[in-house]
Design a protein that fits this description.
mainly alpha, about 55% helix, transmembrane, transmembrane helix, membrane
Length: about 80
């Protein structure tokens, strides 16, 4: 006689109760992203090193959200300084 956990071919099947459902996975992923976006990133932006970097960008009129998508002349000295480190 075959148990309920085995298929006719004899392979062991995983019970659906042990696998997280699709909606539960979605909730976990969205929650993780929300915690990173709303807690971790703001905390990181307030750290002294990051705050200094953001202030330097602000003084030079650089929008950090655009600095990877545009060619900015103001970035050249910053990149040279970072390369010297």
């Amino acid at each position: 006689m075959m148990s309920q956990a085995e298929s006719p071919s004899g392979a062991h099947q995983t019970s659906t109760a042990s696998v997280a459902s699709g909606p539960a996975r979605l909730v976990v992923c969205v929650s993780f992203i929300a915690v990173v976006w709303l807690a971790v990133l703001p905390w990181w932006a307030n750290q002294p090193t990051m705050q200094q970097h953001l202030n330097e960008l602000d003084e030079q009129g650089i929008d950090p959200s655009a600095m990877y998508y545009t060619e900015l002349e103001a970035m050249e000295p910053i990149l040279r300084r970072l390369e010297r480190r």
